[in-house]
Amino acid sequence: MPFLALQGLTKRFGDAAAVDDLSLAVEKGEFVSLLGPSGCGKTTTLQMIAGFVEPSAGAIRLGERDLTKVKPALRGLGIVFQSYALFPHMTAAENIAFGLEMRGVGKPEQFRRVADALTLVGLTGFAERYPRRMSGGQQQRVALARALVIKPDVLLLDEPLSNLDAKLREEMQVELRQIQRTVGTTTILVTHDQGEAMALSDRIVVMNCGRVEQIARPTEIYHQPASPFVANFLGRINVLPAHLASGVAMIGGARFPVPGSADGTFSASIRPERVGFAEAGLAGTVKARVFQGHHWLVQVATDAGLVTVIAPNDGRPVPQEGTITHLTWRSEDVALERAS
User: Fold this and answer.
1) What is the pLDDT of residues 215-270, one digit of tens each?
2) Which CATH architecture has domain 238-338?
3) Fewer CB within 10 Å, N or C, the chain?
4) What is the CATH number of domain 4-233?
């Protein structure tokens, strides 16, 4: 039996289904991300788990308990909001202790657990600091400590890193994952950031228009997307027309071996980082190249359409704009979908 189970979870607002028949089984200690664009239903799903929104249908089970009708305060969940929701008139220690006070935990135990929580999130020495005197990253750590100090069965994270700048967000991703592994708390994250979901998650739930498109580990979702939506949402991808015959794909006049494939017309999907420059292959003209630090982003116009290449900045030459080049890739890096 899964630790947390969402069974046919549905939420309708009038005739519109914000979440439509979502089922998900989460194991104890697992880190699962709900990923998708704005309006896909991921936040509504989190709010139903938290108890802030009542489902129109379905059930939420935590172990042997059915949480569907349980009040939010009695569900035993920790929540970190996008805005952190810290009390501005309370110190870091007082903010962290708030949930313990509401549960009637004695002062000596409060002091011990708050000190442990501050150490866990790297804020030892900040106990008396007020939120207004903290950076965004420090406030985020206090909010995380406040959620964890009550020892929740499940930790819910609602876009907790979205207010941080890019560099700090990457640093906090590493810290958040380390903290989650240290504590072992079952965690559900809502995010629209594909990189964040892939960096943090054991599994990702990709949502679109209230429905689940795919549930899988990050590497599987990235390399084996279940639908064109998933392929396009999880990073860049090239989709090229291909005609297959006798194990060979013709793409823009170039021949590529595709062993074991059926004959017919297909769409060939290739991630940009799997495309390389070569002496032979799909011919094209470099239309643009952009230096992005650890890699080059190159766009090549071919007879099959515009192809994006992500070339590592490893010292090898990258074709200049206006030059003719050839593109190639391994057959195992191509996902084929029969054209409709």
Assistant:
1) 999 999 998 898 889 988 988 899 999 999 988 899 998 999 887 778 899 989 99
2) Beta Barrel (2.40)
3) C
4) 3.40.50.300
